[in-house]
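Now read this:
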Amino acid sequence: MTISEKVAYLKGLAEGLDLDTVKSKEGKLISVMIGILEELAMSVEDLEENALNLGEEIDVLSDDLADVESEVFDEDDDMEDYDDDWFEVECPTCGADIMVDDSALLEGEVECPGCGARYAMELTDDEDEEEESEAGEEE
């Protein structure tokens, strides 16, 4: 039973009591209170309807945002296809990012799919290179 239905039931009960709403102070009070309850019930029902409509609009916006995110951040999805055995390097010729696996590093040569340039890969760790260069500077 909705709030409006409950207020209508209350109004029917009050009318069934045959209260004098003109001369009786109690009748006037009950009549005014029922009028206020009717207005409150209509306001609550309007708010509930608006909340449902807003919820539907939020769902639509959320779906649209998910579509935009998938377009904007699609490159992250590509990276998920690679596991820990892959490394990203930059082609010295064209600057494209290249995904290289362990086997290509062991072969020592990589071909850029963007420009077709082939170049040698060295298996060094950046931290080892920094330590060696710092040690050379101290001498």
User: Anything to note?
Assistant: The helical segments are 3-16, 25-72, 74-80, 102-107, 126-138. The chain has two domains: 3-75, 83-138. The first strand starts at residue 86 and ends at 90.
